[in-house]
Amino acid sequence: MIKKKNISDKTINVACACISIGAFLFLWYWGTAFTKLGMLIPGPVEVLETVTAGFFGKVGRHSILVHVGYSMIRVMIGFIVGSVFGIVLGLLMGWYRIAEAIFNPLFRIIRPIPPIAWIPISIIWFGLGENAKIFLIFLASFSNTTLNSMAGAKNVDREVVNAAKMLGANERQIFTTIVLPASVPSIFAGLQVAISSSWATVLAAEMVRSSEGLGWMIVAGMNNNDMLQILSGIVMIGVVGFILAIIMRKAEDILCRWNKSGN
Fold it and tell me: In 3-state terms, what secondary structure has residue 59?
């Protein structure tokens, strides 16, 4: 019965998603075809044709898939490095008081600063190359994973910890066998936010200085007054971001299956 209910819920979710996307596309088509909105932006059919042509042709020096690849490589490097540092620091601050006392005040000052605000400093430190973009993505990923990892470590069940101590477990064993596994759901919640923030940040970085990537597509379209290219870049940003979110949710379902109740 539970399995049938899950299948039914998934079917309903897919149907609702298709209806909402279809309604949006219909309103977009209707607005551009029968109102003055068509004087400002092209319709969905034209944009879809441009995206399709970009897959098999070139936008600038590369196809759209190559531009997506450049953006993804930058995101993955910054996201992985930032997440590793963020998880380690967050767990340490969440479990060890001395680590929280040392690092938390500085983290609380840095965290509210958006990654985009670091663009001038990143250019001064790293120049206009790839390192500046990766640094900005690192910051976007680091802040979110640190915060959620710290919250996960702080919310560990103290009764379980006390029971482990009574059985003779030392601090290292408690941290690796209790704190770390218990923090995994919170860590994945932070990773989901971090991947979205990283994706948005790389696009902003590419808009500042780049010769490839989806951010470059939008800026190049703006400079050439090419609304089709601008909307094509925006559509691809949304599609790739949606796919990344699905991948992270699936990874969480697989790796945190032990944490799901009712299975």
Answer: strand
